[in-house]
Amino acid sequence: MTTLRSVAGNFISYVYSSWVGRLPVVCVRNGYLRGYLRSFGAGTSVQMGCRFLNGRRVSFGERNVINFGCLFDGRKYVITTGADVSIGPEASILTLGHDPQSPTFEDRGGDVTIGDRAWIGYRAIVMPGVTIGEGAVVAAGAVVTKDVAPYTIVAGVPAKPIGSRNTALTYSLAYRPTFV
Asked: Does the chain have fewer CB atoms within 10 Å around its N or its C terminus?
């Protein structure tokens, strides 16, 4: 049964994905997202063409850089990012799918948490229920199906550890373009 709240939420998502999210002025997009998302940290920037499936379950920490064309699936579960997170172009953060063994095609999913200073590469996919640890790196095109330990670099399909990252990270992201 479709509720008025569900219809309103779908409309808000449609307006952002089809109109506001395509505007080349960052302050307009970010202003809309401050009201739409669960939380939107100071200094965070979302580039054009990103899509949100129920933004009320998406929380961005401070100084996140969300590159163009990303997908955030908050339909049933929560997505949370820490501070200074960089998410590469066309990455997908998924929280919901289906159980392939279910005779009734039942939903299966879980919350996704991305730690401080994590870096998600170009066209990477983070699957439902995954935690990406602080300072971890997900290589471009990787499909993350299991939790990633802090400061671990993962790559491949499915993603597997290939190295480790310096643990003495001190940077603060400050990407604040006017048009992108």
From this structure: N
- Residues 112-137 have pLDDT tens digits of 999 999 999 999 999 999 999 999 99
Whether 98 sits among the annotated catalytic residues: the reply is yes
The DSSP string of 58-77 is EEE-TT-EE-TT-EEE-SSS
In 6-158, DSSP assigns E strands to 39-40, 45-46, 51-53, 58-60, 65-66, 71-73, 79-81, 86-87, 92-93, 96-98, 107-109, 112-114, 119-120, 125-126, 131-132, 137-138, 143-144, 152-155
- CA atoms of 59 and 73, how far apart (whole Å): 12
Amino acid making up residue 34: R
Grouping H, G, I as helix, E, B as strand and the rest as coil, residue 142 is coil
Taking the complete model, does pTM exceed 0.85, yes or no? yes
